[in-house]
């Protein structure tokens, strides 16, 4: 029975598992950074201006429809 082969396989599997763990941690960190960036972009959008009263609009606005045939 070859015991050294079993221990080598166990070590390779253990190293591979830690690489996966590091990769997942890096992915989570990257996603957190993207979330922060997106939140900053969303918060930097200025508020929409308040609707103006209809007093400034022409009375004929919305009375006709132009159709292209």
Which structural traits does this protein have?
elongated, mainly alpha, 69 residues, 1 helix
User: From the helix content, strand content and strand pairing, which structural class follows?
Assistant: mainly alpha
The residue fraction in helices comes out at: 55-70%
Radius of gyration: 31 Å
* Low-pLDDT residue spans: none
Number of helices: 1
Mean pLDDT: 79
The percentage of residues in β strands lies in: under 5%
- DSSP strand count: 0
**Largest sheet data:** none
What is the approximate shape? Answer: elongated
Summarize the structure.
The protein is mainly alpha-helical and 69 residues long. It is built from one helix and no strands.
Molecular structure report:
The structure is a single chain. With 69 residues, the chain is an all-alpha fold. The chain has a domain of 38 residues. 61% of the residues lie in helices and 0% in strands. The chain is built from one helix and no strands. The chain is elongated, with a radius of gyration of 31 Å. The model has no long low-confidence stretch (mean pLDDT 79).
List the helices and strands and how they pair.
Blueprint: H1 3-44
């Amino acid at each position: 029975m070859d015991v050294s082969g079993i221990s080598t396989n166990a070590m390779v599997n253990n190293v591979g598992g830690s690489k996966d763990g590091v990769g997942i941690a890096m992915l989570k960190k990257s996603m957190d950074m993207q979330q922060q960036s997106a939140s900053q972009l969303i918060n930097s959008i200025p508020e929409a201006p308040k609707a103006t009263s209809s007093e400034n609009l022409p009375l004929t606005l919305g009375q006709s429809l132009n159709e292209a045939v």
